[in-house]
Design a protein that fits this description.
The chain is an alpha/beta fold and 364 residues long. The protein has 10 helices and 16 strands. It folds into 2 domains: 111 residues, Urease, subunit C, domain 1, CATH 2.30.40.10; 242 residues, Metal-dependent hydrolases (TIM Barrel, Alpha-Beta Barrel), CATH 3.20.20.140.
């Protein structure tokens, strides 16, 4: 094994090598994504995919290794974002659009996406904007490489006040529930796929009463998926666990209440999987890593907190076979950090998506 000091330029050249060329990357700490941290780990990349991860024994004798003294992790996954979607995320003339495919609204050239890449966010779930009872179908995208990883990732349903209107039906929670029960009773299209368990739902519910309605609605129709946006979900962790739903927490920011900060650790203790949103462009993309730090401050274990923005987030998004961990067969979505990614003092040094170098520590 011949160690070569890793520079951003060197690694960019290596990862741009021909598809049949194997690249051996070594870092002082490799965060696999399941809580395991390999010291002096090695990741093998070929054709934009990870083909192996382990120790120095993976490297053939005499082969060059690109060495980095910092921390290497999988890219983060944001479970809700609207950057680059704009007005396409909401049709104010229609309140029920179950088959609207938000992937068509994905604009990979929009400048807002670069802000996420620079914070180590490599995959994003784009979700219809709040304001419709059924907003349509989400999509998982990789803005840096213009990739749509998965269309029809979830069916977006709203049981929050944002789905109600004084100008159009429904105008109250009882009428919203009645309308949704009628629509899911009829089935067909994306709604029928959700009822069959073929399509996860993303049920927007903010307050505790909304969460209780959402849990009851999902149980009534046998739905699988996630609750989106409940700030105090931890206080209903047992009933959420019984429903089988996951939770997507709005990213923690300054001024977060003690009760909401405790939600992550309470959900974890109950065995409920969860992830976080960036909600950009309204919020800065650094919110995702701030959420990890805040959840840890609220008592959450560091490994669980990091899984919430990598492995667990990828599973909730329905793309765990592609992203979220550093493992053989996964996409080579990698982030180099100056220190541990759970420490806010650490900075993003470089980002690669599908093996392509897309960010170089502020130089591009």
């Amino acid at each position: 094994m011949i160690p070569i000091p890793l520079t951003s330029l060197a690694l960019a050249c290596v990862l741009a090598a021909p598809a049949d060329h194997k690249t051996y990357l070594s870092a002082s700490h490799v965060h696999v994504g399941d809580g395991t941290i390999l010291e002096n780990g090695v990741v093998v990349v070929e054709g934009g995919k990870i083909t192996a991860v382990g120790g120095a024994d993976l490297v053939p004798d005499g082969h060059a290794v690109q060495k980095h003294e910092g921390h290497l992790s999988a890219g983060m996954v944001s479970l809700r974002d609207a950057a680059g979607v704009g007005a396409e995320g909401l049709d104010r003339t229609r309140n029920v659009m179950p088959d609207a495919d938000l992937a068509w609204a994905f604009d990979p050239k929009h400048p807002d996406w670069k802000r996420l890449t620079r914070e180590g966010v490599t995959s994003v779930v784009i979700v219809p904007r709040s304001g419709s009872l059924i907003g349509g179908l989400t999509a998982v995208v990789k803005p840096a490489t213009e990739n749509i990883v998965k269309r029809r990732s979830h069916l977006h349903v709203s049981l929050s006040s944002s789905g109600l209107s004084t100008l159009r039906y429904p105008t109250s929670y009882p009428s919203a529930i009645a309308e949704l029960d009628s629509l899911f009773g009829e089935g067909g299209g994306a709604i029928g796929a959700a009822k069959k368990g073929e399509l996860p739902v993303l049920i927007e519910a903010r307050g505790k009463a909304e969460v209780q309605r959402a849990v009851a609605f999902a149980k009534r129709h046998g739905l699988k998926g996630s609750l989106l946006g409940p700030s105090l979900a931890g206080e209903l962790a047992e009933s959420i666990k019984a429903s089988g739903l996951d939770v997507i927490l709005v990213g923690f920011g300054a001024g977060q209440t003690t009760r909401s900060l405790a939600s992550a650790s309470l959900l974890s203790a109950a065995g409920v999987s969860f992830g976080f949103t960036t909600e950009s462009p309204g919020r800065d993309p650094v919110t995702l890593r701030l959420s990890v730090a805040a959840a840890m401050r609220g008592g959450l274990d560091a490994a669980v907190a990091w899984r919430a923005v990598t492995a667990d987030a990828a599973r909730i998004a329905g793309v765990a076979d592609r992203v979220g961990t550093i493992a053989a067969g996964k996409d080579a979505d990698l982030v180099l950090w100056s220190g541990a990614p759970t420490e806010l003092a650490s900075r993003v040094e470089s980002v690669w998506v599908d093996g392509s170098h897309v960010y170089d520590g502020g130089k591009n």
